Amino acid sequence: MSEPIVVGVDGSPEALYAVDWAAAEAGRRRLPLRIVHIAARWEYHVRADAEPGLGAPRPEAAGLRVLEAAEERAGAFASVEVGTRLGVGHIPRTLLEEAADAALLVLGTHGTGGLTRLLLGSVSRQATEHARCPVVIVPPDTGPRNPEVVIGIDGSESSADAVGFALEEAALRDVALHAVHAWSHPESPPGIRPAVYDKAEAEREGARLLSEALAGWSDREPGVPVTQQVVEGGPVPVLIEASRTAELLVVGARGRGGFPGLHLGSTSHTVLHQAKGPVAVVRARPARTPPG
Asked: I need a labelling partner for 7 at 20 to 30 A (CA). Which of 34, 87, 122, 238 fits?
């Protein structure tokens, strides 16, 4: 059975943008789409220790309505096989359980329900840290985008592994892959003269990291044009700026060097929170290694 693409919904209009993205991705990958809603009893004003009577509100009923609306939205993608799942319980943990067999886990960025009320907080953090598969965070539609997938590379194992995912996405979309490495001068303590850096050397080192990270992968998708760019600047503004126009921004779950905070700490959390387009967070997977 094919691994599904799983999308979490909470009943908000914003979550439907994630459904659109996930359904389109399922069509590109020819995979089934599973729409998941996690109902927590406190969302529906039912005491955790209460035994609901026949007339009491039930989270299952509200959750089914959420799923029906999302399934109807996904129905616009006629070639996609769509299924739904309703879970009741702790939202991050239950969501991860529902996505245990997923090829991708897709979430929106804003909403009113429990899922996205915590999104970019505990839910997204736990999903990106613990999901077996890549996690894609989708903001509301912001208009036309350049035909490219952008990947941030810092020379770490995680960012190198993300190259395979980014190339695959570029091939599926028939667009170019743009690899970016950012570097900046570390701040000096007060009263200490700033260290002098050789800009040309920093750029050469960045170009080397990019070449090494991309080595071997281009042969896997020879039809994908690949461009490389070394940028002077902090990782957060560089990545956020790239997200304004790219079809998809791809980052590794943990990083070093040019993207020193991409370990789901402050840097990556800020990127996910402020990104202007879809962002995929890819964890290192031993099975994904460069050809040859």
From this structure: 238
